[in-house]
Amino acid sequence: xxxxxxxxxxxxxxxxxxxxxxxxxxxxxxxxxxxxxxxxxxxxxxxxxxxxxxxxxxxxxxxxxxxxxxxxxxxxxxxxxxxxxxxxxxxxxxxxxxxxxxxxxxxxxxxxxxxxxxxxxxxxxxxxxxxxxxxxxxxxxxxxxxxxxxxxxxxxxxxxxxxxxxxxxxxxxxxxxxxxxxxxxxxxxxxxxxxxxxxxxxxxxxxxxxxxxxxxxxxxxxxxxxxxxxxxxxxxxxxxxxxxxxxxxxxxxxxxxxxxxxxxxxxxxxxxxxxxxxxxxxxxxxxxxxxxxxxxxxxxxxxxxxxxxxxxxxxxxxxxxxxxxxxxxxxxxxxxxxxxxxxxxxxxxxxxxxxxxxxxxxxxxxxxxxxx
Length: 372
Fold this sequence. Notes:
With 372 residues, this protein is α/β, with parallel strands linked by helices. It has twelve helices and 18 strands. The strands form five sheets. Strands 8-7-6-9-12-17-18 form a seven-stranded mixed β-sheet, sandwiched between helices. Helix 2 (53-70) packs antiparallel against helix 3 and helix 5 (110-147) packs across helix 6 (177-184).
């Protein structure tokens, strides 16, 4: 997608490492950083300099490449795997990417592992872009169907939560891939952007990237979504996912469940954009087995922004001495999901619906997957 009119990815390899967009600096500054070791990669993921399930997966893959350059032994790869796995427990893409690269390296002699890891990481990054473009094609059809219900020239009103645009992926985005496709095709769209407390990924990241691409949008506080739905100002809700179970339950940024409840009450379609690496085929039962990341209280206690001089600052917004809980994600039951938009089409939120699109994954899970 575009940054200051220039096509840009969120991560790209260089000779001595990988470079990333430091998303903690947005929207006030556009800063890139170089990662040269597995430790720097783990820190970037843990501190959310890179975030979003697909981008975490690609970054993790490049982290194993950096590890293999430094120590390609079995012990070195195992230690790097453990370090990266511990950074963010909820997004399934992280483990998926680690397993994919580690499986490629296992049979190889140590001297061949760095090159193989780099090739695997490049492949994961390029595949992510291709997957997201395909999601955009299928999501565009959903948006076109909503447009057919509007008066000519009226924009399709789409509400989204958190950031599932290109900043959450290597490029193109998941939930916003269809929005960009519609905008580029000349179909009028308008996006309601949840601020997404406590880190404000919607206000800081989604709004920034939509603005960079010229897509009309309006930032709202998280609790305004239900009001807009009641007033008929939302045609559909489109969100991303950090992990979707084989049964169609969706783990996404905290607050997604409340949007799904409001959408169901107001009769508004609620779609989830889920690239196949985000589908956890091992979980065929209740989604309560998924670890929900509990993040530090500081994210709630303070907010970051820029003062009148443009200087980045953090200010306290919570009364001193108050206890704080900060779960990072919630679970939206499949019964509240209208459809799951994948790179192979739109599926009902059910094991049967997903299995019809991905029979090879569903069959493999049935034979050897763990039911938790």
